[in-house]
Structures are given as structure tokens and as C-alpha cells.
Amino acid sequence: MLRPLLWFVLGALITQSVGAQSIGVSIADQQESPAQSDIPALLRAQNDYEQKPADNNTLLTYIATLRAARLSSVAYALAQQHRDSISADLLRELTVDYAAELTRLSLAPARSEAERYRLADRALEIYDALLEANNEISVTETTNHRIFFDRIQALHARKRMVEVVQSYEQLRAQNIVIPAYLLNEIGDAYLYLEQPEKAATLYQTSLITNAAAPRDRSEVIKEKIGRYYALQEQGRWTEAYALIETTYTEEPPWRRLPGVSQPLPNDSYLEVARTWAVAPLFHNDPGLALERLETLTESAPRDAGLKIELANTQRAYGHPRAAQFTLKQAEALAPLNPDLLAAQAQTALSLQEWDQAQELVAFTQKHYPELKTTQHLQEDWATHEKWELLIGAQKTFSSDSPVSGSGEHALETTLYSPPIASNWRALVGAGQTNATFNDEPLRNRWVKGGAQWRAGNTTIEAGLISQRYGYGQKTGAYGNFEQKLSDAWTVGGALAWRTPATPLRALADNISTNSAQAWIRWAPNTYREWTFSVAPSRFSDGNRRVELRIYGKEPIKQWSTVRLDGEIEVSASSNTKENTPYYNPKADFGVLAGVRLTHLLEQRYESRLEHYVQLLGGSYSQKHFGTGPMAAIGYGISWRANRNLEISSSILGIRRPYDGKQEKELRLALNISLRF
Hints:
Elements: H1 3-22, H2 27-30, H3 38-51, H4 56-68, H5 72-81, H6 88-106, H7 113-132, H8 141-157, H9 161-173, H10 183-192, H11 196-209, H12 217-234, H13 237-250, E1 254-255, E2 264-265, H14 267-278, H15 286-299, H16 304-316, H17 320-333, H18 338-350, H19 354-367, H20 372-384, E3 388-398, E4 409-416, E5 424-437, E6 440-455, E7 458-468, E8 473-484, E9 489-497, H21 504-507, E10 513-525, E11 528-539, E12 544-558, E13 562-575, E14 587-604, E15 607-622, E16 626-642, E17 645-658, E18 661-675
Antiparallel strand pairs: 1-2, 3-4, 3-18, 4-5, 5-6, 6-7, 7-8, 8-9, 9-10, 10-11, 11-12, 12-13, 13-14, 14-15, 15-16, 16-17, 17-18
């Protein structure tokens, strides 16, 4: 009865052996299988068993031969047919062998993920049953340890990383020595659970302990890549970057086998090259990551994983539409790749394609809940579904300038509801501006309510505003829109009737303002930006104002944690009316340019802390008052606690002329974005 099964297994494993040898991977690395020299002994033992099936010694010899040939599943099946003739201890050992074989098969990358999970689940069922029966069956300590060790590998294959760590820590608490071959899996588990310090230590211990052991090169590369990410997440950027650079340099793209004239592709090289290519994305240089990935993708156009990495980098670089196109190419190669589905969902969120994102979020959660990419996607979607509160505050200290007075302070809050019917959000808000001019305190308070519509390339927001600035309740309205033309180009505009942005000195004389604005922005990536805007406005006292503004930012120099950018702002305005109670130059023109040095202080998973120093200089010209110098120095710090909370603050000192007189100002600002 076992002969067909034995021949089938032998044939399959011999075929696998030949295929594995043809690509330079040992049979043991693929699956433990019999060597050619084991086959005659197997056939003799089988013949003896078939001639004397009732002889217990023949049965035990046959089982021992199967075990020696590492055909655990066949030995286990034979033992199940003769349970009454086999001791409980031997049956337990055969069961452990069979579970170990299932575990090895669950780690084979050639199998589908669903199949590997089924194998791991079956192995875990067996291990748990064996451990429950521990008190009833006498087994050696070594056998018990082996069950625990193999069970850790099965848990790792099933992505049950919490239990991997729990099992490891329980064994350590009992002073059980953990074999070196398990350290990599345990390191993976700690990294999965966002404990990079422990992960880095385990990876390093494994690399040192196993340095002299004969191991497949892919295992070494896997550990080095794991250690790189563990160092990266700790903020040990220099050490991490040096590790991946060295690993990439030392790994050859081709390898040669004895007796094979043509070089063969090195799979380990491709794995480390992918990590090396993506590394600049986490070291403040997504442009370099994009260049490297584009080169790699061109050399391996059928590699879906590379295309997914390229798309993720394109999205991080500010190119979500290019990422969407790249993911379509990857979809043709691996339509159900879980990393592809997560990347498509993230890109849909960036492009405000809410329905598609929701479908992908639900699908990945149903089929791949244990994957990190799925969990991160779930967290991003949960953030999208929350309330959003924006708070902006500013305090200005000045020597009674005609614009900000002697103590302006402003506060504005806006609360957005969770999405309604996918594209809509309701909003409410409130704010006030206070300042003192010539010892006279002035104030404007307002509340607003409205709605926002977001879909695809378009965002529109509109609402009503009710103000109180000393002349009863005044109702106004506003609307603004933004249209994405491409990854680089965006246009927008705004209209406001009785805008709260009217100067306080105008409001004090019951003068309101209606305004409009149109702008166009070119931002080819996350570090470059040029914006041009024109904003005409009409004051109720008959004054017409037109304001023009050009703002540009260009990267100058990039280091791993430091970035130097150049900035320039050009502004001009004209007014039709003179002798107004508010600052109202007939015409003016200003240029302010300089540099901003940004330093990344700390980054750990979602948390990010950075600060900057800003130095600017220029000139300001005002009709009838000539030209005077301008200078500014600023400092800011921003903290992203997680995807739900961001806080930034800044201080800016400015010296500039108003009506020909130099004034000094010190501005403090605070901005908070909170999702709940």
C-alpha cells in the first residue's frame, strides 16, 4: 500500500534534487530529501517489509530506514498503520519528524502563501497536541526542546510573531539554550513587533555565531538586511547605511557553478540590491532611491517586487500618478501579490480615489491580515475615517508697526468630520485676531461652517462666516478649490466675501473686503516648488488692491540627516486709494531670499522630529518712500508623533521698512494637526 506513495515521493524528490542542483541550491536548503545512496537501502527495507509485514523487527527497520532517508511523512504514515506495534515514545518521535517536515515545507518560498499557511497551521496543531500530552508520555528533554524550537519556526512561518517572542522568552526564562539557527526568525519577530534594538542584537549574534557554519548565502543576506532595517528604525543611520552599502558591494550579481560555463543570476544579489536601492528613501534622499530603482527595474523588467518598490518610492517622491502606472505594470505580472494590493490602496488614498482604496483595504484585511503592509494600510484608512482638527496660532511682538500693531495675536481652528458618502466632509471653525494700534485694542472674532468635497484630482471647500468686529454680526462667505493637473502641476483659486483676512485697522472703521485669488504651482518632487499667485481684492471704502507673489524652493545639498535648501520670495502690490486708515502703499515691491538648513533629529517608525534654521535677506521698495533692506532669521521644529498627531512651531525675527521707517518684528507660530 505504501509502495506507490514511496515511489511518488522518491520520484518527486529526485526531480527536485536535479532542479535544485541545476540552479546551485543544495537539496537540504530546499527540503530534506534522500541522497542517491539512500535509495537502494530504502528499496531493500521495503522489500523485506512486504515479504514479512507481520514481523515487528522488519517494520522497525523499515521505519528507521525511512527516517534515515528523511522521508518523515512516509515513516509517519506507516507508523499510523501499525500503532499497536510501535512504542509510544517512537510514535511521538515520528510525529515530531512529520511536523518538522510540514514546518520546512511551510518555509519554502516556491509555494503559495495560502498553502504555506495551511502547512504551518497543521504543524502547529501537531506541536500543540504533543505538548498537551507531555505529562502522559515519557519523553527525553531533548525531544521536548526540539518541539519548542520547531514550533517557533512554524509560528514564524504563520506570521504569529507575538507568540514567537513569547515562546523565545519563556525558553530563556528556563535557561534553555536557543540554537543559533533560530536567532534569525526571532530577530524577524522582534522587528515585526517594532522592537528594533532586540532584533539588531539577535541578527548580529546569529551572524557571528553562524559565521563558520556552512549556510546558504541567501540566509546570510537575509540576516544582514534584517539588521539593516533594525539599525535604521533605531535611528542609527550611519551604521545602517554603511552595512547595506558594504553588503551590496560584496555580493556579486552573477555566480558560477562547477562544470557550468555560463554564469547564473545571483538571487541574493537581487535581494540586497533592492534594499540598497530603496535605502536612500529612508535617508532623506528619495531622488537617489528613484534613480537606483529605475535602473534595477530596467535590468529586471519581469520582477513585480521591484516595480512595487519603484511605485512606493515614486509616491513618496510626490509622483502618485506615476506610481499608479507602475503598479498597473506590476499587476500584469502578479495580480494578487499582497504588497501590490497594499501599494495600490496607498496610491488610491494619495489620489483621493476613496472607493477603490476602501475595496483594497477590505480585501487585504480579509486575505492577508498578518502582513505588516496590510496593518499599516489599515491604520492609514482608520486615520482617513477620523475627525480632523487643525489649530493655528500666532503671536507677533513689534514696535507698533502699521501692519501688526504692538501685540498682534491670532488663533484659528477648523474641525472636519469623518468622510460622508466617501467624498464629503462637513466642517466648522472659529478664530479671532487681536492687536493694539496707537494704544487702541482691536479685535475680530468669527465662526464658520461649510463642507469640503474631495474626489480624484479636485478638492473644493465652501462655507459661511459670521464675524464680530464692533459693528454687529456680519455674514460673509468663502470658497476655494484645488485641481491637480499632473504629478508636478497644480492650479487653485479662492473667493471670499467679507474675508476675515481684512486688516484690523480697516475693520475698526467698518471697512470690509471681498477678495479673489488664483495660483499655479509647479512641484516636480517633494523638495522643489515654485508657486505664482495673483490676488485682487476690493475694500468697501472703494480701494482696489492687487497682490502678486512668487515663491520658490530649490534643493542645494543633501546629506543623510541634513538638507540645505534655497528659498526666494518675490512680492508686489498696488492700491488705488491713498490716505486710508490701514497700511496701504500706493505700490511696493519686495524680494527676500536665503537658505534653510533642515536637520533630522530623530526618526523611529511613524515618529519623526526635525528642526531647521532659516537665514534670509533682501530689499523692500515702497513708492514715495524709497528702498530699504530686509533681513530675517528663523528657527522651527516639527514633531510627527504618529499618523494622527503632528505639531510644529517656529520663531521668526524680521527687520524691514514700513513707510520708510525700519521696524522689528518677532513672530511666534504654532500649528497642530490632530486626528481622533
